[in-house]
Amino acid sequence: MIQSLLEPDRRRAPAGDPAIIARSLRVNRPDGAVLDGVSFEVRQGTVTGLLGPSGAGKTTLLRTIVGVQQVNAGTITVLGHRAGSRQLRSRVGYATQEPAIYPDLTVTELLEYFAAVLGCDDGRVDEVIATVGLDEHSRIRVDRLSGGQKARANLAVALLGSPDLLVLDEPTVGSDPRLRRELWSLFDRMAADGATVLVSSHMLDEASRCGQLLLVQHGRVLAQDTPANLRARTGTDNVEEAFLSLTEGSS
């Protein structure tokens, strides 16, 4: 069962203030723009789902938010600082779609290494291992884990510092339904404590669990709203139909 990763005495900025502000973002590649004038805001204390088809620019947008993507035009501010600023290193957790973890370490050794880098308490390692359901694999080398288990280890690294902003690229891929449900419950608790969670996903059933949805296609923002408002706006019965209505209308 997932345990709380939140520090009870940790003080966050008031919920509702902007956690991310993007204005006219543009990222170019030789064959065209990956992000083409993207503007949006994400409020603190929310769980926001980033949805879009393959090639829509989701991963590039997440990389821009954490400051590892070169931007050709526009601005992006994260927690009051320029994206990628030194002040954000201990405040932003990032889990990439392809696990960026050391394969020759055990799960425990991997997390102990990153805990030392972040200056986390010793007990944090065992806590996040339990959170992502890797208790029985803690002494196994990362290169011997399944794809889904590697994704969990990658998520554990992002959770270590109890971040103010958690940026997750397809975090539940390879997870069984029970773990997926528990992870989303964790995201909800983090948001209730004032943290901000931004999750990209291609699973539209997960989209309905988000407080806000950010829909992208062809490097542009199609809509940002609550799932209920998107359904009402498109006259559809579920998020999947609303998404298809908006994306088909923009193609």
TrEMBL record:
Residues 20-243 form the ABC transporter domain. The keyword Hydrolase does not apply. Keywords: ATP-binding, Nucleotide-binding. Signal peptide: none annotated. GO terms for molecular function: ATP binding; ATP hydrolysis activity. Coiled coil: none annotated. The keyword Nucleotide-binding applies. It holds the Pfam family ABC_tran. PANTHER family: ABC TRANSPORTER G FAMILY MEMBER 20 ISOFORM X1 (PTHR43038:SF3), ATP-BINDING CASSETTE, SUB-FAMILY H, MEMBER 1 (PTHR43038). This is ABC-2 type transport system ATP-binding protein. It comes from Prauserella sediminis.
